[in-house]
Amino acid sequence: MALIGRFNSLQVVKTTDFGLYLDGGADGEILLPKRYVPKGEPIEIDDWLNVFIYLDSEDRVIATTEKPKVQVGGFASLKVVDINRIGLFLDWGLSKDLLMPHSEEKRPLQVGDYCVVHVYLDRRTKRITATARLDRYLDQTPARYVVGQQVELLVADKTDMGFKAIIDGRHWGLIHKNEVFKFLRSGMQETGYIRELRADGKISLSLQPIGQAAADDLGEQILAKLRDSGGSLALSDKSPPEAISQAFGVSKGNFKKAIGGLFKQGLIAIHDDRIELV
């Protein structure tokens, strides 16, 4: 049985002038229209193809070699390309746009807006559907992260406390304001790190590595830049966060910890407007 809304590896069972028929198991033969048949080497009976399975405008199961931006069960930031009485239509990389019913909107959207959505298979209609109501699809399994662990983040929403982000497509986390040292917006994908696993189950995130190893690595970067700059750098613990982020891609707090460690080792001197090699 082919999985609707996902990539499937299916075997060619018939060739026609208008496309190929693939073995969909319990779903029978599934058409791969001619316009989606890969060019190049001839495709023969019993060959295997990696295809995405969805329903066409007449609710027939159909295959494509187009690559959607997200599969069923995943999260993505998608652009609204049309709105009608049924719902919103999102560009997800296929010729047929993805429907998000009005009941699945979290806030009013207009054509051209981007929205972070979860993609699911409607149990009644078997149609691939999007929702902006994400809470029901996250934090369903216990969080088994460890502090300092590297994770993949999808920034979902800005709040008074910082930015909510989806961790590895499974859990909610928060990048607190004081951890935001560069431009962020909803829909951005970032590499992050687990900063804190709180007793209430909430997860705090960082955009920088955690722990002594990270501080040591930053210290080495600072020393290297000092050597390349003739032994002096126009940055210090009083420099604006933007200048530090532009130079090293880190927060001011982590920079201060790193130069403090170098100072204690007797490797640098810290002045109000600069640091210098000793």
Descriptive report:
With 278 residues, this protein is mainly beta. The protein folds into four domains: 7-64, Nucleic acid-binding proteins (OB fold (Dihydrolipoamide Acetyltransferase, E2P), Beta Barrel); 75-135, OB fold (Dihydrolipoamide Acetyltransferase, E2P) (Beta Barrel); 150-206, OB fold (Dihydrolipoamide Acetyltransferase, E2P); 212-277, Arc Repressor Mutant, subunit A (Orthogonal Bundle), CATH 1.10.10.10. The protein is 14% helix and 37% strand. The chain has three helices and 18 strands. It has helices spanning 212-228, 241-248, 252-264; strands spanning 7-16, 19-23, 29-33, 48-55, 61-64, 75-83, 87-91, 98-101, 114-121, 128-131, 150-158, 162-167, 171-176, 189-197, 203-206, 232-233, 268-270, 275-277. A five-stranded antiparallel sheet has the order 3-2-1-4-5, with no helix packed on it. It has a five-stranded antiparallel sheet with strand order 8-7-6-9-10, with no helix packed on it. A five-stranded mixed β-barrel has the order 11-12-13-15-14. A hairpin with a 6-residue loop joins strand 9 (114-121) and strand 10. Helix 1 crosses helix 3 (252-264). It is elongated and about 75 Å long. The protein starts with 6 loop residues before the first strand and ends with a strand. The mean pLDDT is 91.
